[in-house]
Amino acid sequence: MTQQDVRALVESNLATIPDFPEPGVLFRDLTPVFADGPAFHALSEALVEPFAGRFDVLAGVEARGFLLAGAASALCGAGLLPIRKAGKLPRRVLREEYALEYGTAALEVHEGELAPGTRVLIVDDVLATGGTVAAAARLVERAGWRVAGVSVAIELVDLGGRAALDDGHETFSLLQY
């Protein structure tokens, strides 16, 4: 299936919700894509295809990134690294804080989960302002692993998320709005 075909399939299943979670926001809901087997399969493959042969592990950013990275890792036979919200992992962790519109949040990974130098492809659902993905990339690097790239289903271009990836990590987005 061509990338254009995958885009069309995913878009035909994508739900667009006006004024969610607040007035003026046009929310792109991927849950109908997850519920459609062929669309979910095609999306999962499309997220890893640009990075084929250049990663060892997929890192899924909580929460929808887990779904995408999990499906893609099963399809390509790569391992899966969960990047969790703070306080969810039971062993010793590395933590990376990042700014939100109001306040801060943090992401964590288990320390020593992967061998030093492991090539990690970061997968998430949406690249908006870039704060979450940038924090995930910093966390991967602080752990001694290498960011192989960033792959997202949707990029909200006007929000400038790519600029937040200040280390210039190669970034793929299937859909841009």
Descriptive notes:
The chain is α/β, with parallel strands linked by helices and about 180 residues long. It contains six helices and nine strands, in the order H-E-E-H-H-E-H-E-E-E-E-H-E-H-E. It has a domain at about 55-175: Rossmann fold (3-Layer(aba) Sandwich). The protein has helices at about 5-15, 30-35, 35-50, 65-75, 130-140, 160-165; strands at about 15-20, 25-30, 55-60, 80-85, 95-100, 105-110, 120-125, 145-155, 170-175. The chain has a seven-stranded mixed beta sheet, sandwiched between helices. Strands 1-2 form a two-stranded antiparallel sheet. Strand 8 (about 145-155), helix 6 (about 160-165) and strand 9 form a beta-alpha-beta unit. This is Adenine phosphoribosyltransferase. It catalyses: AMP + diphosphate = 5-phospho-alpha-D-ribose 1-diphosphate + adenine.
Helix and strand layout, with pairings?
Elements: H1 3-13, E1 15-18, E2 26-29, H2 31-35, H3 37-48, E3 57-61, H4 64-76, E4 79-85, E5 93-100, E6 103-110, E7 119-127, H5 131-142, E8 146-155, H6 161-164, E9 171-176
Parallel strand pairs: 3-4, 3-7, 7-8, 8-9
Antiparallel strand pairs: 1-2, 4-6, 5-6
Helix pairs in contact: 1-3, 3-4
Strand content: 25-35%
Q: What's the alpha carbon Rg, rounded to whole Å? A: 16 Å
The average pLDDT value, as a whole number, equals 96
First and last CA, distance = 22 Å
CATH class of the domain at 54-176: Alpha Beta
Secondary-structure element sequence? HEEHHEHEEEEHEHE
Fill in the CATH topology of the domain at 54-176: Rossmann fold
Structural class: alpha/beta
The helicity comes to: 25-40%
Give the CA-based shape.
globular
Q: How many strands appear in the DSSP assignment? A: 9
Low-confidence stretches: none
Tell me about the biggest sheet?
7 strands, mixed
Kindly report the spatial arrangement of strands forming the biggest sheet: 5-6-4-3-7-8-9
Q: Give the helix tally.
A: 6
For the record, the CATH architecture of the domain at 54-176 stands as: 3-Layer(aba) Sandwich
